[in-house]
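User: Hi! I have a protein structure encoded as tokens and I'd like to know what sequence might fold into it. I'm fairly new to this, so please keep things simple.
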């Protein structure tokens, strides 16, 4: 949210250059970032800890892009009115911009959750202990070289799918609901 707000609303040197570099970085395949991310997680001592799964998945270039595009669509008059009322930058983000972007933030959160929940390779590499395995990694242990236990495999697949389905059912109105912020400004 903070990076998107800065790129959308603040004026600073090389702002457009930073944004263009960010867009270029979205074209780079995710596997290119795999080794640097692992090196960072290992340097912090987070390997074989669930924090190694959570923290790297909190921010994404796509999320910054998505929120920036939404923040640009918010009329400046709304923010200018809050400045006249004496709001500082933290208050503008917290009380004006973020509530207007609630739908976009929720959709972004769901997309990040789904991506991290279903991630197999990253969890396989950073978590060593069997008791800390994520669901996709745990399910893969049910498939052997010669024998596959289909009953437990299908039950595990159901357990992996249920949280995703429940989260979608809880936030589907934000997907369906149109994002219209034009009612905040009178002409």
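Assistant: Happy to help. Inverse folding works backwards from shape to sequence: for each of the 187 positions I chose a residue that suits the local structure. Here it is:
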């Amino acid at each position: 949210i903070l990076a998107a707000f800065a790129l959308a609303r603040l004026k600073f040197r090389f702002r457009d250059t930073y944004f263009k570099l960010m867009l270029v970085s979205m074209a780079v395949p995710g596997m290119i970032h795999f080794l640097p991310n692992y090196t960072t997680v290992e340097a912090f001592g987070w390997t074989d800890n669930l924090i190694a799964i959570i923290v790297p998945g909190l921010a994404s270039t796509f999320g910054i892009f998505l929120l920036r595009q939404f923040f640009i669509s918010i009329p400046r008059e709304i923010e200018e009115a809050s400045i006249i009322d004496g709001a500082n930058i933290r208050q503008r983000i917290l009380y004006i911009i973020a509530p207007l972007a609630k739908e976009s933030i929720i959709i972004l959160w769901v997309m990040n959750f789904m991506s991290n929940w279903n991630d197999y390779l990253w969890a396989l590499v950073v978590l060593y202990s069997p008791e800390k395995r994520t669901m996709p990694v745990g399910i893969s242990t049910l498939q052997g070289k010669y024998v596959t236990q289909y009953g437990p495999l299908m039950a595990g697949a159901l357990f992996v799918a249920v949280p995703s389905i429940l989260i979608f059912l809880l936030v589907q109105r934000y997907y369906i609901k149109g994002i219209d912020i034009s009612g905040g400004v009178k002409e």
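A useful reference point when you look it over: The CA atoms of residues 139 and 148 lie 11 Å apart. Feel free to ask if any position seems puzzling.
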